[in-house]
UniProtKB/TrEMBL annotation:
UniProtKB keywords: Oxidoreductase
Organism taxonomic ancestry: Bacteria, Pseudomonadati, Bacteroidota, Cytophagia, Cytophagales
Gene3D superfamilies for the chain: NAD(P)-binding Rossmann-like Domain
Record protein name field: SDR family oxidoreductase
Family classification: Belongs to the short-chain dehydrogenases/reductases (SDR) family.
Keyword Oxidoreductase among record annotations: yes
InterPro entries named in the record: NAD(P)-bd_dom_sf (IPR036291), SDR_fam (IPR002347)
Length: 264
């Protein structure tokens, strides 16, 4: 019982930043870290409709370098730095249909949002972690980075694959200095963003959202657990990875996909 009670507030005194933290997986992570005792900062482009007094909010578009600088400066001024950084920001909103419909602007947008926003924020906030010789960075990637679908995720998958490689190399650089870097690759999560993605695909294909959802799961090879994840399930994994219980884990990529990924 004592061990369980200790775990409920095991992040007390820690400062955490969750990007894209006002909805979907990001909000679930922010809420879970708060529940574990952390003071959580969230970023998003727009203030959420319902004010969440649990979290310190900074409006920012992290695909814009100057906004990354703004966020880092405010964090350093208000909190001195962070102990936990969850780079959750990402999106797959570009046109489907393969290489011929994708412009240079589309590719640049995918890289800015899904890769370079994390690279820049790490560069801004990591020095303080290295100075204090402790910290955890989580990069939220996607199984799409290892299992791409040309019809709908080409630039997104390429950017997430690059994020996976970057995260692994960064972990090797900073591990000896007390900072852990871990990748989490969710599969399909039942979020509003996923619902919009499926609606757009269904409209383009002229079929129902239900049929498109089934088609997507079949295209991915099926999900043995038979459903999409609840974002809270992904958040629970992240909460464990940033906790002292995961103190010997770094450089790994954790796949959380209901058994979908087809290789050992």
């Amino acid at each position: 019982m004592e061990n369980i009670q200790n775990q409920t507030q095991e992040l007390e005194g820690r400062i955490a930043l969750v990007t894209g933290g006002t909805k979907g997986i990001g909000k679930a992570i922010a809420d879970r870290l708060t529940q574990a005792g952390a003071k959580v900062i969230v970023t998003a482009r727009n203030q959420p409709g319902e004010i969440d007094l649990q979290h310190y909010f900074i409006a920012a578009d992290l695909s814009v370098p100057s906004d990354v600088t703004k966020v880092a400066n405010e964090i350093h001024e208000q909190f001195g730095g962070v102990d936990i950084l969850v780079n959750n920001m990402g999106s797959n909103t570009l046109p489907g249909g393969g290489f011929s419909v994708l412009t240079d602007e589309h590719w640049d947008q995918a890289l800015q949002v899904n890769l370079l926003s994390s690279v820049r924020l790490d560069r801004a906030l990591l020095p303080k972690m290295l100075e204090q010789k402790s910290g955890v960075i989580i990069h939220i990637s996607s199984t799409s980075g290892m299992l791409p679908i040309w019809e709908s995720t080409m630039p997104y998958s390429a950017a997430k694959a690059a994020l996976n490689a970057y995260s692994k190399t960064l972990s090797g650089e900073v591990a000896a200095q007390g900072v852990r870097v871990i990748t989490v690759s969710p599969g399909l999560n039942k979020t509003q963003a996923m619902a919009t993605f499926l609606e757009d695909l269904a409209k383009s294909a002229g079929i129902s959202v239900e049929q498109m959802s089934q088609n997507l799961m079949e295209r991915l090879g099926g999900i043995p657990l038979g459903r999409m994840a609840d974002p809270k399930e992904t958040a629970e994994l992240v909460n464990f990875l940033v906790s002292p219980r995961a103190s010997y884990i770094t450089g790994a990529n954790y796949i959380i996909d209901g058994g979908n990924f087809p290789v050992v």
